[in-house]
Every structure is written in C-alpha cells, then in structure tokens.
Amino acid sequence: xxxxxxxxxxxxxxxxxxxxxxxxxxxxxxxxxxxxxxxxxxxxxxxxxxxxxxxxxxxxxxxxxxxxxxxxxxxxxxxxxxxxxxxxxxxxxxxxxxxxxxxxxxxxxxxxxxxxxxxxxxxxxxxxxxxxxxxxxxxxxxxxxxxxxxxxxxxxxxxxxxxxxxxxxxxxxxxxxxxxxxxxxxxxxxxxxxxxxxxxxxxxxxxxxxxxxxxxxxxxxxxxxxxxxxxxxxxxxxxxxxxxxxxxxxxxxxxxxxxxxxxxxxxxxxxxxxxxxxxxxxxxxxxxxxxxxxxxxxxxxxxxxxxxxxxxxxxxxxxxxxxxxxxxxxxxxxxxxxxxxxxxxxxxxxxxxxxxxxxxxxxxxxx
Length: 367
Fold this sequence. Notes:
Elements: H1 2-5, H2 7-20, E1 28-31, H3 44-47, H4 55-66, H5 72-90, E2 94-98, H6 105-115, E3 118-123, H7 147-159, E4 166-170, H8 175-178, E5 188-192, H9 198-205, H10 208-221, E6 239-243, H11 246-260, E7 265-268, E8 289-291, H12 294-302, H13 308-329, E9 333-337, E10 342-346, E11 352-354, E12 357-359, H14 362-365
Parallel strand pairs: 2-3, 4-5, 4-6, 6-7
Antiparallel strand pairs: 1-3, 8-12, 9-10, 10-11
C-alpha cells in the first residue's frame, strides 16, 4: 500500500524500467497515460510548450478563449492550439522505431514517457534514426537549419538594426560560422583568436595598448611634466561578436569589458552557454547579448543547478520527437514555445526556429 501511494517512487521506478527496455530487443507498448498523473495543471501559456498532453489542457485553453482577454491574433492562435491538442489527444496510438543501442535511445524513452501519450516503440537494429552526433551544431531531421545556424540568423538580424561597424573575434572551430555573419551596411573585421593571454589580446585589438604606447612617447618628450592619462579604446567599431570555445568565454568577456568598458555592444554565440553549469555563471557575461529561448529563460529563473548544454541537448531531442508526434497526429501548423527557440511547424515542410537574443543581467537570473 505504501508503494502505491508514493507517486514519486512509482514514477522513478517506471523510468528505470523504461530505460532498461532499450537494452532488449522486445518492442515496448508505452501507454504512459496509465503511468503519469498531472500533479500541477499547466497554465495557458505553458501549453504552447507542447511538452505533455492531458485532457484538462483543453479546458485551460477554452477558458482562455472564453475569457475575452486575447486580441484577434492571440484568439486565432488559441483556437489552433486547442484543435491541435484535440487531434493529439484523440489519436489512439503513435509508433516510433528506435535502435536499441542508439546513443539517445534512453533519453528518448524518458521523453516519450513524459508526453503522456500512447506510444508504441519498435526496436529495429536496421532502422536509421536521423539524429546527428552533435545536436547543437548539426541540423536535425525535420528542421530547416541547425541550432547554431539559427543563432547566426538572430545575430545577423541584431547587427543590422543599426549601421555600426563590427568586430568578430573567433576561434578556429567556429571559422565557418563566423564567415556566415553577413552585415548589410556595416563595416566588418574578423580577427582569429590565437593568443594565450586574454588581457593582452583584448588590450591589443581594442587599441588600448597602442594608446598607452603613444602616451609613453609623449611623456618621454618632457619627463618633468605630469600628464593625466586614461587609455581610450578604438572607436572605429561599436559591436563585438564573440565566437569562441565555451571555456574561453569566461576569460575573454571580462577582459574585453575591462579594456573596452561600455563603449561596445557585445554579442555572444550560442557556444557561450555550453559549459554553463549553473545560471549564476551567466553573470560572467553580464550586459552582453546571448541567444536564449523564452522557455530556457523561464527555467533559468527557477533552477539553480541547471546545466544549459544538457538542457539544450535534451530540448533538441524533445523537439525532434515532437515533430514525429505532430506528423502522426495530422497537425497542419503549430506555434511552439520550444526549449531551443520559437518553432513554427507546418506540415510537408521543414520546421523553422527563431532564437531571441537576450541581455544577460540579474533580472534574467533572479526569480
């Protein structure tokens, strides 16, 4: 009796059993409606995340429709959302073929369980799953482009909001992505980072070191004269895009800000998130712009131990799985508040993703 009443223990054991199934050749008929209970009903906006499906979600959507608080566009979106959930919930069975020893099989099983839908998993050694080795830098089947490419698109849109000139600092690994930065009417300089000392490198490229040398020459002309001197960074560019390995960001951004202060707008590539193990570490990037989805921003506020790289990878897996569900349910179109970005799904074409750039500050992190 104690076992039956302990809902968390029951859920944990169910996940362990499901994960162990990936090491067998037996098919798994997973009707997770029998396993999962909705502890806390979702609010209306959470339903746009398409994370799980319960019958009372329909009531929440209908209440929003009847509440007369939505404008014309929002009302139309809510009606489409309700129609989509009705289709998803009324389909009697979903089918998914997985390879037993695939890299992501266990993660996919857990994500399937959390959908709360009747999913029949078929183990097939010969079935090829179109999931890349790197879920962030490589395109996932069903999407128009990779998460990295979508981050580049967001950065291009941001820098083209004004004609200010641009400096790109990149490491060799991100050279091809740096070449995809395409300003419309802005001057652009690309500098490859090859140094070992972040302070010296930042001082050099921002012109502070040159300013100091010039001051020393002037001082030497009249050594008895006391001159006030404040090093000035160069002024021929106003925007700095940083595309480095994850471990290099924590030293580069503080070094740039030390020498450049608030004279520049700093934009980070999405690789800056990949070694963030707690949201507080984001404050190393304070006042810079970074590609962060609305969904991820909401989770950052509520979780002090969130590994952003793992969270994004898991989100990418869920979104691939979601496309399979939408196709099998016969969904024509959907607007999704996804983990990796805002996703626009339309049947018979690839899904588009938009990742907003958000300023890193204490407001983003504090709940």
